[in-house]
């Protein structure tokens, strides 16, 4: 496993699961940068998605993990950051394939959708698989081209 450091963030809905998943990640000998939130008081998930994603695109961390109630809001916010491919996953298979076929660099899931054991399976699959390249490179390059076209339209 080449993963040395990850960033993790949650909103209030994902905070309880984040608190449980951090020790599991640390048991894998991976450094965890927790960007918040740090309690169950209502807060805004885009703030934490952006913090995690900025660490990923700057290469200060290897991968990102985002947790809110459903994972949906976090994944939408994360995918607004140039260079991020955030996968909303619900099981081991989708986590594994998001890395192998889609070169995802951030994973999102719902703390109120899955249990802690499934979350651990997701983390393990996401961290231990890597991009296969080959025919998948062509497809990921097309995703990157969409991002570039949108950037050019804004300028």
UniProtKB/TrEMBL annotation:
PANTHER family: RIBOSE 5-PHOSPHATE ISOMERASE, RIBOSE 5-PHOSPHATE ISOMERASE-RELATED
Lineage of the species this protein comes from: Eukaryota, Metamonada, Anaeramoebidae, Anaeramoeba
Keywords: Isomerase
InterPro entries from the UniProt entry: RpiB (IPR004785), RpiB_LacA_LacB (IPR003500), RpiB_LacA_LacB_sf (IPR036569), SPI_LacAB/RpiB (IPR051812)
Family affiliation: Belongs to the LacAB/RpiB family.
Superkingdom in the source lineage: Eukaryota
Isomerase recorded as keyword: yes
GO biological process terms on file: carbohydrate metabolic process
Protein name per Swiss-Prot or TrEMBL: Ribose 5-phosphate isomerase-related
Gene3D superfamilies: Sugar-phosphate isomerase, RpiB/LacA/LacB
Listed GO MF terms: isomerase activity
């Amino acid at each position: 496993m080449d993963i040395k450091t990850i960033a993790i963030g949650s909103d209030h809905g994902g905070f309880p699961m984040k608190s449980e998943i951090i020790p599991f990640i640390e048991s894998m000998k991976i450094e965890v940068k927790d960007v918040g939130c740090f309690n169950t008081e209502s807060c805004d998930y885009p703030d934490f998605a952006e913090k995690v994603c900025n660490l990923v695109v700057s290469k200060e961390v290897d991968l990102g993990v985002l947790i809110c109630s459903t994972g949906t809001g976090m994944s939408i916010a994360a995918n607004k950051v140039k260079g991020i491919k955030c996968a909303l996953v619900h099981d081991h298979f989708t986590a594994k394939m998001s890395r192998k076929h889609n070169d995802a660099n951030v994973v999102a899931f719902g703390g109120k959708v899955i249990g802690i054991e499934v979350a651990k399976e997701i983390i393990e699959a996401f961290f231990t698989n890597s991009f296969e390249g080959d025919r998948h490179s062509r497809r990921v390059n097309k995703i990157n081209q969409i991002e570039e076209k949108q950037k050019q339209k804004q300028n």
